[in-house]
Amino acid sequence: MGLLSLLIFLPLLATVLILLLPATLRQSYKYIALGFTVVQFVLSGWLYSQFDNAATGINQASGFQFLEQLPWIRLDLGSLGQLEIDYFVGVDGVSLPLLVLSAFVMLMAIGASWNITKSTKGYFSLLMLLNMAVMGIFCALDFFLFYIFYEVMLLPLYFLIGIWGGANREYAAIKFFIYTLFGSVFMLLIIVGLYFSVVNPETGANTFNMLHMMNPNNYVDGSFFAYLNNYYEVLGIPARMLGFIVLFIAFAIKVPIVPLHTWLPDAHVEAPTPVSIILAGILLKIGGYGIIRVCYSIFPDAAAAANWWLGLIGVVSILYGALNALAQKDLKRLIAYSSVSHMGFVLLGVASLTAEGISGALFQMLSHGFLSAALFFLVGVIYDRVHDRYIYNFRGLATHMPAYTGFVAVAFFASLGLPGFSAFIGEAFVIIGTFNAESVGTGIPRWMAIAGSVGILLSAAYLLWTLQRMFFGQTRFKGGEEWATLLTDINTRERIILFPTLALALLLGVMPSLVFDKMNATVLNLVSLVSQYL
After folding, report:
1. Closest-CA residue to 521 (of 14, 65, 12)
2. Is 281 in contact with 101 (CB distance < 8 Å)?
3. Across 206-291, where does the E strand assignment appear?
4. Exposed site from 92, 154, 214, 373, fewest CB < 10 Å?
5. DSSP letters of 104-126?
6. In Å, how far are 146, 354, 356 from 350, measured between CA atoms?
7. Beta strand segments in 235-336, E
8. What is the DSSP string of 446-471?
9. What SS3 class is residue 232?
10. Is a pLDDT exceeding 80 seen at residue 210?
11. What pLDDT is recorded for position 201?
12. In the beta sheet, which residues pair with residue 207?
């Protein structure tokens, strides 16, 4: 078994072990989950350290590292040829940083799950199954394999929200499931269409290999998604543009972009704290990753034609999410809408089709991953103590919980893009890339960069206003003396979870080259791939 397979299937081994252990050993479940995830995190860190920064990735197998390719399904279809599905995994400068992020956020989620007492066997086994699916998504280079991991991810999330969530958990779980399934069902149709349009140049058989799908020479002349002699249109839309739109919608639901975002606040509000950490830290990044790995790489011609609209959607998401966050009174819902706003920068950066814009978008995905996880964990700290998140029910927390206030203040300042923190680097590069896009002819006007800057200003407004309302002034709690007793300051376990996250935000804010060096060659290759169609 290769290193990537080990990284992917370690959580599955943990799931089996947890399920086999009797209920009398229920206290060991969390330690098993923690132990396997620590090993996974160390392994991902080792892969990161061994990664060749010159690897170009995207559309060339030679540009990927730690490749594993094994024949998986072979089926003779008679006159239709042979069905080819491979177990094909590998990483490049886009996927490897997200693998490390996923392992890190999973560690945070398990630490946040320490006090879970309800059906712990089911909870931790589902958490590990979700861990496996996420790792598989970021590694898969066969579209059929990618889709399997993508669908497997839905099941544990549905049950984690629906069983361990809040009062309206069933509604939130069903809404999340239907939204995601809506996108993935149509995604399957496009995958099948691509399969019958693309051939493996070595065997002549149709293939699900994503790298073969990125090469125009592998498309059958006259096939549904062919580059040349493409006669197919649906409602006047060329087939390749239609394929791009359908796949974009499927991944945009995950980002989420406006107006496909309405599942997110409900899911966050009802989900338990560890699941909110995973939703914000990992799940939203799958949407951004899918747009880059699938939409832009397989349909670069359609991406080049549609990038103005994608930039506009990014700007709308930035401003709409920020304005909604400004109006919220529930702290968790406020942070959920801030995620919509911050992920809008990812779409804007990718749409700019500039090296700095796409690098900024990827950096923003990483930064938002661990910072949003920290913010949802901080909300969970308060909620675990008094089961309330309403902003106006708290005042003067700085006097009562000084250490907690310090962590919140750092997390807020890091999230709003204060120079010296990682979010500043991501958002600044997106703005720079978007501003330069017009001069290099990608079709993105400079006013979109200005609108994105307004989003940064609004994020400062809602985060600083929340800090002022909850933490300063005369101490007053809705629950009176009872709350004053319950609201104990942050404990050692909570400090251990939060400190590395905020330290990482500072480290990457000061030394962004730790990430940029890994992704630079891959980003340049992506820009080159798409720019030829401008």
Report:
1. 65
2. yes
3. 233-234, 237-238
4. 154
5. HHHHHHHHHTTT--TTHHHHHHH
6. 21, 8, 10
7. 237-238
8. THHHHHHHHHHHHHHHHHHHHHHHHH
9. coil
10. yes
11. 85
12. 84
CA distances from 27 to 19, 31, 73, 514 (A): 13, 8, 40, 38
Residue 263, CA distances (Å) to 238, 247, 338 in order: 30, 19, 14
Helix (H, G, I), strand (E, B) or coil at 82: strand
Q: Of all residues in the chain, what percent carry a pLDDT higher than 70?
A: 98
Reading the block at residue 132, the tokens are: 């496996």
Q: Which DSSP letter does residue 233 get?
A: E
CA 508 to chain centre: 18
C-alpha span between 500 and 272 (Å, rounded): 22
In Å, how far from its chain's centre is CA 222? 36
Question: Six-digit token pair at 297?
Answer: 């790489």
Q: 253 and 183 in contact (C-beta within 8 Å)?
A: yes
User: pTM for the whole thing?
Assistant: 0.92
**Is the pLDDT confidence value at 222 over 90?**
no
Q: Using one digit for the tens of pLDDT, what is the confidence trace for 435-480?
A: 988 877 777 888 999 999 999 999 999 999 999 988 888 888 887 8
Inter-residue contact 511 to 350 (CB < 8 Å): no
User: Please, what is the average pLDDT of the chain?
Assistant: 89
Q: How crowded is the C-beta side of 158, counted as CA atoms within 13 Å?
A: 13
The helix/strand/coil state of 86 is: strand
List, for residues 144-187, the tens digit of each pLDDT value: 999 999 999 989 999 999 888 877 888 888 988 888 888 888 88
What does the pLDDT read at residue 364?
93
Distance separating alpha carbons of residues 30 and 246, to the nearest angstrom: 39
Residue with tokens 């080259």: 513
- Per DSSP, what are the bridge partners of residue 209? 142
